[in-house]
Write a structure and sequence with these properties.
Blueprint: H1 13-37, H2 42-64, H3 70-93, H4 95-115, H5 118-129
Amino acid sequence: MAEWDDLPDDENEDGYEEAYETHRSGLYDMIVAYADEHELGDGFLADIVADLGLSLRMVAYAAETEKPSIGGLRLDLDRFVRELGDSVREAKKQAPDFIAEAKAAREEEGAEGDEGDDEADTEAVDDTRQ
C-alpha cells in the first residue's frame, strides 16, 4: 500500500496544485456557508477546522499506512506540526498584505453599508477570510 502522503506517479506538481486549489476552494466555501448559517465566529470556526484537520491526519495515517503503529503515528504527527509551522511562518510573511486587504475590505464594507448593499458586504468579508 502506498504511503498516504505520496503523490501518484502520474500526478505532476502543477496538477496537484490545481487540484489542491480547486478542492480547497470548494471546501472553504462549504465551511464558510455552514458557519454563516449557524452564526459561528471565525475564531471558533478556525478551532473546529484545526481539530478536524488533526483528526483527519490521524485517520489518514491509520487507514493508509500498511502497518500503522503508535510510534509511526507520533512521527507523522511530528511531521504534521512541522508542516503547520511552515504554513504559519509563510502566513506571517504575508501578514502586511493580508491586513491591508482586510482594512480595505472593512472600508469598502463601511462605504457600501451606507448604501445598504448587504451582498457586497458579505463578499468583502469573505475575500479577507481566504
